[in-house]
From TrEMBL, chains A, B:
The keyword Secreted does not apply. It holds the Pfam family LacI. SUPFAM superfamilies: lambda repressor-like DNA-binding domains, Periplasmic binding protein-like I. GO terms for molecular function: DNA-binding transcription factor activity; transcription cis-regulatory region binding. This is LacI family gluconate utilization system Gnt-I transcriptional repressor. Keywords: DNA-binding, Transcription, Transcription regulation. Residues 16-70 form the HTH lacI-type domain.
Length: 338, 338
DNA sequence: GATTTTTTTGGCAGCGCTGCCAATTTGTAG
DNA sequence: CTACAAATTGGCAGCGCTGCCAAAAAAATC
């Protein structure tokens, strides 16, 4: 479209091809290919001549061509809801370490928790013929599911276990997390419990935690007294704001937050307002962020295996493991805020 | 290598090709290609027939083949030091939003602050013939620089401005950040200033901040009294630990931290130890994390344009802008801790 | 030294798509 | 109805590499 003159200036694709290397080394193309991939047999002398030519010409193999010619791409596609929610960078971190070791490449796109966008991005990803597509959770549009099933590529659904997996699932039960959080608060004797969360229609895993949290409290005869759902993303500020609003409407002795960052916001709100924790108000979070342990009173929360989720998912793909659901569990941290 | 029997079970690459679509629609291959890319001319009737065939067969274009056949790949490669340091997810977030809008794909690898690994990963990235490679800062091995220059693909160096760019640079001056941090502390009257940081040989941008911080204090005749460098990554725990060690060795009235997370660790250490802030000890961070504003005394720090760095970098690539250095600046937040 | 076996090697047909060009169809003007 | 321009369309040669197969060279055996 624009600046074709500029384009000229900055594009000099140093197109050294395998054929040129072969020529320079005085060997056949397939020999170069074998040496470079260290696959098949060739003599040490040949190897040296090829490597010398590669070095001399500054040859960089073209994976695009290589992938097209062979099959299976060593690309792993991540279609994640967000990069602001620490969960996803953590998962990527775990996965990328394993993938890099095995010479796979990670590709990603961010759906912003929008299922429609997820479908579009998943389609775009499939066009790269990845070895696997990794998504968050089980809630996808029908189109997405159909497309993934038809694609023939491996699918890994991450961070959830409450639902039917398309292929592989790695994570833990969000329902169990919600349930155990509620049970913990009940054990501690709290009875007037509230909830502060971010948009649940979009973050369906948070939604599952909340709903099983509610069910557990209902069963105990002490349902959630009040809840405050904030439209924006999970954040410290929203946690603070949410708690402020909630306390303006209801008298509570404990609050469950959809995430640690929100819980921290709530915690700081209490500090600022002189609300003593946990005697006046208990706070319980979710995720087990490091910073939760560093505050004056360690945050009571559930620690999730985020990095491990990425690692395991990547390992299963690398090993071409059969369909399965891997439960990594979570750990309830009693902390000092509840 | 392993499980070829398993392999059979899970690979049914639904290989519907463009040729099959053409066949089914009763048109030529190039026509299908034109319709799908909405490029060139074709009649409305043809369009419908093609789309119907695409729908019916569940055709997913193969970008690998498309990229090989055309030129330029609409892939943007990120070679970043870490995903734990919030800086990089933020940059990716900004960039990926812009890239997705323009139908580019983000690919990434994590170097773990290791220049050797950076070189290897950059080489692997170039094999995908990306439209651009984005790296952190200017400090690369000679091999990396040579390879990037020879590659002919655009290069963007992020988050630094103190050095010579290979092509495009987007960020701000870390030296200026260090200098202004020091100047601020001096203006506030602090004279016995210490530093707590993470591994500086590896995070060269943090190294630059520290060195210009030191120079500024030296020039004022009040050099850094003591510093504590922790081997691990920047983290809340390390900040706490670093400050504890530092205070055991020196009497200080202010401490500069290499990052906000470390500064927060220091802040909480003070809270726990009853050290009053800022009267007994001032704390100054770097990055401007949200949580720094939520704690009882807002953290004094420098806010960096992380998301914007990613956005601008992506925009320049999408627009195929000429080589340039874009200074996004930073903002000193006075806060209440210094 | 001849023969068999094993190791190396090169040739070449695709992988699925795009870009170019020529051919065909359609539209328009004379 | 003819001539000419414009809009559509199809054919096909690659893009750079890998995989297969047969040929050549080297090593082992008798």
């Amino acid at each position: 479209m624009s600046g074709s003159k500029l384009t000229m200036e900055f594009k000099h694709q140093a197109t050294v091809t395998l054929a040129e290397v072969a020529e320079a080394a005085g060997v056949g193309e397939s020999t170069v290919s074998r040496v470079l991939r260290n696959h098949g047999s060739f003599s040490g002398k040949t190897r040296e001549r090829v490597m010398a030519a590669v070095e001399r010409l500054g040859y960089v193999p073209n994976r695009i061509a290589g992938t097209l010619a062979s099959t299976g791409s060593r690309l792993v596609a991540f279609v994640i809801p967000s990069l602001s929610n620490i969960v996803f960078p953590d998962v990527l971190r775990g996965a990328s370490a394993v993938l890099e070791e095995n010479r796979y490449q990670a590709v990603f796109s961010v759906t912003d928790y929008d299922p429609g966008k997820e479908e579009a991005l998943a389609a775009a990803m499939l066009a790269w013929r990845p070895a696997a597509v990794m998504l968050a959770g089980f809630e996808h549009t029908e189109g997405t599911a159909k497309m993934l099933r038809a694609s023939g590529c491996r699918v890994v659904e991450l961070l959830d276990l409450d639902g039917d997996a398309l292929d592989i699932a790695v994570g833990f039960s969000n329902r169990a997390a919600g349930r155990e959080s509620a049970a913990f608060l009940l054990r501690r004797g709290y009875r007037r419990i509230g909830y502060v969360g971010h948009d649940l229609n979009r973050d369906t895993r948070a939604g599952k935690r909340f709903s099983s949290f509610c069910e557990t409290l209902d069963a105990a005869g002490t349902p959630v007294v009040a809840h405050e759902i904030l439209a924006g993303p999970s954040s410290v500020d929203n946690g603070r704001l949410g708690l402020e609003r909630l306390l303006a409407r209801a008298t509570l002795d404990a609050v469950y937050f959809s995430n640690d960052d929100m819980a921290l916001g709530g915690y700081f709100h209490c500090l600022a307002q002189g609300i003593s924790i946990p005697s006046q108000l208990a706070i319980f979070g979710y995720n087990g962020l490091d910073i939760g342990r560093a505050i004056p009173q360690p945050l009571s929360t559930i620690r999730t295996p985020r990095v491990a989720t990425g690692e395991i998912a990547a390992q299963l793909i690398v090993a071409n493991a059969p369909p399965q659901a891997v439960d990594l569990g979570f750990e309830l941290i009693e902390g000092a805020t509840a």
